[in-house]
Each structure stands twice: as structure tokens, then as C-alpha cells.
Amino acid sequence: MAVSNYPPPPIISEFFSQPRPAPTSLAQQDKPQNNNITMKEDNTDSTTTTPPILEEVVWRDDLIRWEGGLNVDIKKKSDDGDDGDESSDDGQSFLIDPFADPDPFEMFHFDFDLPSSNDNNQQQVLDDTDNKDEVNNNNPSRSISLQIRGYKTDAEQIWQSTGLTLWRASHYLCEYQVEHPELFQNKRVLELGAGLGLNGILAWRLSCTACVHDDESRVETSSSDESTSEVCITDGDSDALVHLRDNIERNRPTTTADSTSKVSCHQLIWGKDSSQKFLQHIAHNQKYHVLLASDIIYSAVIVQPLWETVHTLLEKEGGVFIMAYARRKKVPVSIDLVLETAVEWGFGYELVKEDLEDGIWVYEFRFR
User: Fold this and answer.
1) Strand 347-355 vs strand 290-294: parallel, antiparallel, or unpaired?
2) CB–CB of 296/193 below 8 Å?
3) How many angstroms separate the CA atoms of 239 and 267, rounded?
4) Cα 64 from chain centroid?
5) pLDDT per position as a tens digit, 327-361
């Protein structure tokens, strides 16, 4: 992805300090917004002390990546004496061509094979027998299938909202999640900058699977359907949230037994003030055991707000922030800046998975 040389706005919070009407987004042009999952809480009893509703605001990540956003005000330029030509060479006029691709959407399919709880015992049997096919057939691995709908990676809509497609670090983080499903069992999990929601949805499905199928420590749900795990999937981008909610509905488990984990979707724009409001009104002052993120570093201006958010929402005792980072030549933000800022905010970090050939790293961050 190309990145503008123009400096980002100095204060992100200025873009969303005031509630605004619900957006008419790119995704809504394709299908209506799914309202089964909303960030508003119904307050049917006026005598309760339910916190005030948090309004969603219209916001897209091009406000950070491009000065003034992707689309400039052509009329204003004309009023200033410019001819308003859309082909201006000032580097700021980027208007989406609706005829570039008649079908810019893509359905991404994923199948994740999960190790069974007796894999260690099975490996011992495999070492001691010559009939490995019979052993494998008697101990089938479980799997999770996901369908994630979004835009193609070369669609012009991605210039406006990067979260409308999938990026390579998210696939790599999925591998790490499948290798460590215990991270999500009986935990409060939140994904930051989820985009289409691949990693958060996988964490949700992993938490469901862990609760129901762990043979050694089966978790029983109560008669009141109280969940042992909660997964909150968030993004700040208005257009991405439409697709994110649709993908959550698309990947709901088909059986009641696999629906033991709660899932929710909310807008979360990073920064200290907005994160504190989110913690109070959405999380009910309960911090999260696990934070997830992948492919979220695309501008230096977001690094400080990111760590303000992590510092606000992550449990200090035992909490872990897992982040997948992919190197990109045209993104002028190094992993060193991210790590240095993490240390400034009181975090230690560990490299837990890497692919040097593709330039992808997974880090775990914890309070020191």
C-alpha cells in the first residue's frame, strides 16, 4: 500500500470528540447494516444505574493516513481560485473510481485444525506403533471453519479504509492462536483494530471450542447460560464496523453447545480518554485478560494512542497483549518505535513467533 508523505493530524481525538449520525458507508452500499450486534445498551428500566449510551461516530482511518482524509473538498479549492480539476498534481486529490472493479468483494475461507487435548498421549502411541493411520483415525483433530467477507486487497476502497480487507500478519497471528488455544479459555478477550474481524472471531470460536471440548477439564455452563469467556471485537473505522458485524453473524456456531462464549462488537478509537469511556460504559470497568491486534501499525501518530489504550484496558496482573507486526517498505513506522514506546508505558515484551522471510513477527507484551 502506498502511504502519503503528508504529515498526519497532530491530535487524533479531535476527529471524534463529538457524536455524529450513523454513517452511510461503502459497505452499506452493498447490504444493510446488521443490527443484531450494536454498541448501544438497552436501558428498559429507568430506575437502574446503567451507564449512558456511547454513540458511534463517523470516522475512517484515512483521516490518519492522509492529511484531511482521502477525498479533498473540490468545491472549496474552486472557491479559492483553483479550477477544481480532479486530476490535480498536488498529491491530495484521490477520488474512488466506482467503475474500477465491478465486483470488488471477496469471500476469504479459512479452515483451522485444532489439536485434541490428548495429543501428547497420541504422540507417544505414534512413537510406539507401526500402524499410525489407525491411531490418527481414532483420534481425529477438531477444526474451525471461518468465512470472512470483505474487499479484495487491490480494491480502491482500501485506500479509504484499510480494515476492509485482510492483511498477511492477521494470517500469521491466527497460526499462533491455534497453537495456543488455552489463551482464550475462561478469559475476557478484546481485539484492537479488528478490521474484518478474523483474529477476534477466531479467538471467540477458540474460546467456545475450549469450553465445550476440553476432555481433561470440561467447563460446564450454568442453567442461566452464563458464559465463561467473553470476546469483544473492536475497530474505530465506521466502514469496517459494518463488515465486522456481518462477519460475526456469518460465523456464529451452529449448535448451542458451541455457543458458550459471549461475543460483542463495538467502536473503539484509540486514546486515553476514549479508552477510559469505553472501559466504563462498555466493559463496565472490567479489564481484559488478553488483547489482540495484527497489521495495526501504519502511521507513527497512532503509536502513542495505541499504548494509552492498551495501558487502560489490559489487566495488570497476568494480562497479555499479543500483536502481529508485518514489515512494509512503504510504511514509515518501524517495530523499534513500537517497542520503545511500549517500554515507556511500563511494558516488557517477548518475541514469540517470527517469519524472517516474510518479515512478520508476533510479540507478547506484559506489564513489568
Assistant:
1) unpaired
2) yes
3) 11
4) 17
5) 988 788 899 999 999 999 999 999 999 999 999 99
CB atoms within 10 A of CB 356: 8
pTM: 0.73
Residue 239 in grid coordinates: 466502514
CA 185 – CA 208 distance, rounded (Å): 8
The SS3 call for residue 211 is helix
The DSSP-derived string for 42-87 is ----TTS-PPPPPPP----THHHHSTT-SS--HHHHHHTT----TT
Mapping DSSP to helix (H, G, I), strand (E, B) and coil, where does residue 345 land? coil
pLDDT at site 261: 83
Distant-in-sequence, close-in-space partners of 113: CB < 8 Å, separation ≥ 6:
141, 142, 143, 178
Determine contact, residues 334/359, Cβ cutoff 8 Å. no
What is d(CA 73, CA 90) in angstroms, rounded to the nearest whole number? 13
CA distance 185 to 346: 26
Q: Which cell goes with 355?
A: 517469519
In whole angstroms, what is the distance from residue 312 CA to residue 159 CA?
Answer: 30
Residue 295 cell numbers, joined: 497489521
3-state secondary structure of 111: strand
Alpha carbon of 178 to those of 20, 94, 281: distances in Å? 39, 40, 31
Can you tell me which residue has the cell 479489564?
Answer: 287
- pLDDT tens digits along 206-222: 998 655 444 444 333 33
C-alpha cell at 309: 489504550
User: By the 8 A CB rule, do 291 and 279 touch?
Assistant: no
